[in-house]
Amino acid sequence: MRFPLIPAFLFSLLIAACLAAGAWMTEGSLLKAYRGILESRFAIALDRTAEGAMHAASLGVSLDSQEGTLGAALRRERALDADILGMAVQDARGRRLYSEGAMPEPAPPGTLGQTLLDDLGLPAGRILLRYDPRALEVPSAAIRQDMRGHALPVVAGAALLGLLAALALRAGRAGRGRLRLPLALALILGGGLLLIDQHALRIIDRTLNPLIETKVESIGNGARSLIDKALALGIPLDQLQGVPEYFESLRRHYPELERIALQAAPAGGIDEAAAPAGRLLLPIPARGSAVAALEVVPDNRHAANQIHGLLLDTAFLGLVALLIGFELLSLLTQTSAFRRPSGAADVRAGAALPAEQVRGVLFVFMMAEELNRPFLPSLTERLLPAGAAHAPLLVSLPIVVFMAIVALGQIPMALWSESLGRRRGLMLGAGMAGLGYGLCAFADSYSGLLLARAFSALGFTLVFTSAQGHIVDQADPAARTAGLAVFIRAILAAALCAPPIGGFLAEHFGTGTAFLAAAGLCLAALCLARAMMSATRPAGRTHAVRTAPGAFRDTWRIPGLRALLLGCAVPAKLILAALCFFLVPLILADEGYSLSSIGRVQMIYPLMMVLCVPLFARWGESPGRDARPRKIILGGLIAGLGVFPVVFLPGLGTIMVFLLLLGLGQALSITPQSSMMATYAHHGQGRHSAQVLGLFRLVERGGSAAGPALAGAALGLLGPAPTLALFGLLTTGGALLYGYGQWRSTFNPSGRLS
């Protein structure tokens, strides 16, 4: 069988692109970790200097009058670390009082700062520290060279293996080898990512571990300098006061420090090089005959936790690259090169189904919106004017406005999409959304961000309704059902892959870059829609049915429908949008977690949905027994009660448990909810079916829009813990009320569905 090279080349290019992206993100994580540890070493000097300055200020000595003591402290810190080029002190108005070393004005890149606070907690001044850029640039260049030198042959080898695998698998009879391409992708891409992560571990051992030890040594040198100063004033070593308390405060402040102790010098003197492995011996005084030694022991557990966190980061990035690879492979297999029929019998198989045409387009487009999940609340908080009233509510508005436009625009955008044609509607919507994300990238004010989000919401709604309409337009009910399942999988896959990437881009390159990446994804979706989707409209498509007056009122009175909507559907969307999209990233950002970490945490919910929705779809079902209400109630209880661990034990661990339980509960209830709504629509006997489904989607979208607004208002009035408890109670109470309604229906058979 003659084999076309184009699909094999595309397959190998896909592997190379995913591996290169994984290596690039791993390199970025290593560089950020190195910079963070290096700058935390210099922050020790800032801490020591600031502590002395604020102590003097608490005794009534202003910064203007501390030139003697504070100037000496600046000189001492510079002498302790050769990489410190200069330090300076400013007053509250930014006027420089005095400096030591090379500290030009304005402060150049590579300058750190720490604010000095008075007794009332108000800014009294600022200490600046400039370090040698070579301390960062030289090791960073070495890490880049090492990482790229290792990744390049891995990427090239994996691409070659992918080419050979595609040639071998494609040569099977009737193209059946194409079904084994995902397995080949997983093996080759997974193996390449493993090799890259193993090399990243070697770089960590070689560069980050010594840097952590250097930081601990800097802590010890600072303590030794204070003891040296006391000895120089004539205070005997055995009469020093407060030394144990000072050492204990160092241990509390610096978790890298396991032990610091003062011990007498041995008779033969102190040999720093002869110290046991993992310990530092610093002679006191630093110059001259040693009378004592300062023993400093790094906490290897803290260093290991930092390294494990970094390895977890690289593992998550590799997982994301693998998942994106699967989605892009699915997209490639729908191209004409992959779907070329081998004979007349395969002509029908060579035509892409409508859902397959739109799946890749929707995945790429939905990633654009999901990119901003980790950083949008914190970005909005930074853009708010200082002292703005009702700040938490204002922070929620960019999400609320977006969700509200999506909710209210479903019907008009669906009609517009139908008149334009689904492909043209999707392309126009992608262009509008891309322009909106581009405006978000350059928004430098709160109002500008709000307007840009509103514009991107219009494009998002048009894309969503066009893609959904492209599937629903098909005449075959089985094709529609399968198509909607593909539709949901594409959305969940985007929600799983995009947040870690968005957090990574925002953390390393800024939020503007992340929004520009979203705009680029919209442009890619536009091009894919033009290439993949059919421009022809299905023959015999019926015109939109006009809603009769009072139809929605009659629909609202269907027995059991209100209980399902208000007790389960609305609380499910409220808790998802309010907590997962708004409160969780805001709380984690306030606690100091990186945007990359927030993005990884936000993967938990869609991951549980992807894994558990198929698992729970048929669970508990048996002939003659309707398990759907029980699954809906149980899912609501799991999701609602999962909030309370965060209320009583706030922290990253309980937030992760909550997101896991939220995903578990909603995976259990989402399929029965949709099935119940379809049953209500069926029992309308054609009179209310469209209204039932339309009302369901409208109420769901309304809950998504109201959730962040309610959370923002409650956060400003009550605080984080009561706000979390409020949404937990709403979800739990809604499930219990729905369960009570189902229990009552056993005594009122006329209200039950048969």
UniProtKB/TrEMBL annotation:
<feature type="transmembrane region" description="Helical">
    <location>
        <begin position="484"/>
        <end position="506"/>
    </location>
</feature>
<dbReference type="GO" id="GO:0005886">
    <property type="term" value="C:plasma membrane"/>
</dbReference>
<keyword id="KW-0813">Transport</keyword>
<dbReference type="InterPro" id="IPR005829">
    <property type="entry name" value="Sugar_transporter_CS"/>
</dbReference>
<feature type="transmembrane region" description="Helical">
    <location>
        <begin position="603"/>
        <end position="620"/>
    </location>
</feature>
<keyword id="KW-0472">Membrane</keyword>
<feature type="transmembrane region" description="Helical">
    <location>
        <begin position="388"/>
        <end position="413"/>
    </location>
</feature>
<feature type="transmembrane region" description="Helical">
    <location>
        <begin position="425"/>
        <end position="444"/>
    </location>
</feature>
<feature type="transmembrane region" description="Helical">
    <location>
        <begin position="450"/>
        <end position="472"/>
    </location>
</feature>
<dbReference type="InterPro" id="IPR050171">
    <property type="entry name" value="MFS_Transporters"/>
</dbReference>
<feature type="transmembrane region" description="Helical">
    <location>
        <begin position="724"/>
        <end position="743"/>
    </location>
</feature>
<dbReference type="InterPro" id="IPR020846">
    <property type="entry name" value="MFS_dom"/>
</dbReference>
<keyword id="KW-0812">Transmembrane</keyword>
<dbReference type="InterPro" id="IPR011701">
    <property type="entry name" value="MFS"/>
</dbReference>
<dbReference type="GO" id="GO:0022857">
    <property type="term" value="F:transmembrane transporter activity"/>
</dbReference>
<feature type="transmembrane region" description="Helical">
    <location>
        <begin position="632"/>
        <end position="662"/>
    </location>
</feature>
<dbReference type="InterPro" id="IPR036259">
    <property type="entry name" value="MFS_trans_sf"/>
</dbReference>
<dbReference type="Pfam" id="PF07690">
    <property type="entry name" value="MFS_1"/>
</dbReference>
<feature type="transmembrane region" description="Helical">
    <location>
        <begin position="512"/>
        <end position="533"/>
    </location>
</feature>
<keyword id="KW-1003">Cell membrane</keyword>
<feature type="transmembrane region" description="Helical">
    <location>
        <begin position="150"/>
        <end position="169"/>
    </location>
</feature>
<feature type="transmembrane region" description="Helical">
    <location>
        <begin position="563"/>
        <end position="588"/>
    </location>
</feature>
<feature type="transmembrane region" description="Helical">
    <location>
        <begin position="307"/>
        <end position="329"/>
    </location>
</feature>
<protein>
    <submittedName>
        <fullName>MFS transporter</fullName>
    </submittedName>
</protein>
<feature type="transmembrane region" description="Helical">
    <location>
        <begin position="181"/>
        <end position="201"/>
    </location>
</feature>
<keyword id="KW-1133">Transmembrane helix</keyword>
<feature type="domain" description="Major facilitator superfamily (MFS) profile">
    <location>
        <begin position="313"/>
        <end position="746"/>
    </location>
</feature>
